[in-house]
């Protein structure tokens, strides 16, 4: 095999749908896919038949054969596979979220701090062409100071698969907030420039997924009913950062409202509004150049495969040391925000993440969760 990534022998850990999604793109990029690992025999058989590579039931055997791994397992197992790979100085592309708990995420971060390999987290939405365009214009100062992000990732009916690991807190770490919110939070913080997080407040709800009469049209992975459903299916939250920069967040697997994937990036000179799934982008501004007027500019961008571009950035970092971000510090900040929202909802108070002082209510000591 020839090509710029041909020297990076790569394997997949977790051979389900998302593992195959990544494998298809590895092949398209000319990355040598040399093996896969899964504890399920059927998953191994399907993967071997589809890609013609060795498959293993033990990650040690896979790690002996590769230079890099893409980890796409359920959240609870991220730590085991990622830490083992980092300790062997392998390069790791780890699907979001970083882990199922903040404690597990911090152990991954500790391993990454001393590892020689590259670690990137699967924040693929950063690579949407509309987001790239907004970042380029922001860097040129066209938005002025970006002060607030309105982030929506709301499905009308979209619980992934009731009865699967997605809907069991012990394996997933949460529901809609940790599944969809991780994307919305990272993208918001990314567009703000990842300022230090000061405090979060939020409410998570479980209103639909645990019902016998949950009405839906389709469900990814099938429906095994409400038994064992112990996660949130929606969340509303507010994040306050240094310099009074803020994020308002709405995420849901299920709600009685139309779906929306709209993000609004508000700046002092202009704002941007875009659809996370469709890529539609409009720039809003006002001008006193001549008669006072408002400007709404619709911009069309070429559709792009964000996972392919994410993989390209990962292998560029591996082979050339070109770093496009999306590393452990950002992922750990996102995990701390998610953990803070869950604690805020459980305790009914704002959770401070910045300076080590006690909460005004005296309910809980703050953690030193400043991001940078």
User: Structural class of the helices, strands and pairings?
Assistant: alpha/beta
The helix tally amounts to 10
Return the CATH architecture of the largest domain.
Answer: 2-Layer Sandwich
**What does the main sheet amount to?**
9 strands, mixed
State the order of secondary-structure elements, H for helix, E for strand: EHEHEHEHEHEHEHHEEEEEEEHHE
The order of strands across the largest sheet is: 14-13-12-11-7-10-9-8-15
Integer average pLDDT: 93
- The level 1 CATH classification of the largest domain is Alpha Beta
Shape: globular
Q: Which percent range fits the helix content?
A: 25-40%
| Strand content range | 15-25%
Quaternary structure of the protein: single chain
CATH topology of the largest domain: Dihydrodipicolinate Reductase, domain 2
Kindly report the name of the CATH homologous superfamily of the largest domain.
Dihydrodipicolinate Reductase, domain 2
Q: Alpha-carbon distance between the termini?
A: 41 Å
Cα gyration radius (Å): 21 Å
Number of domains: 2
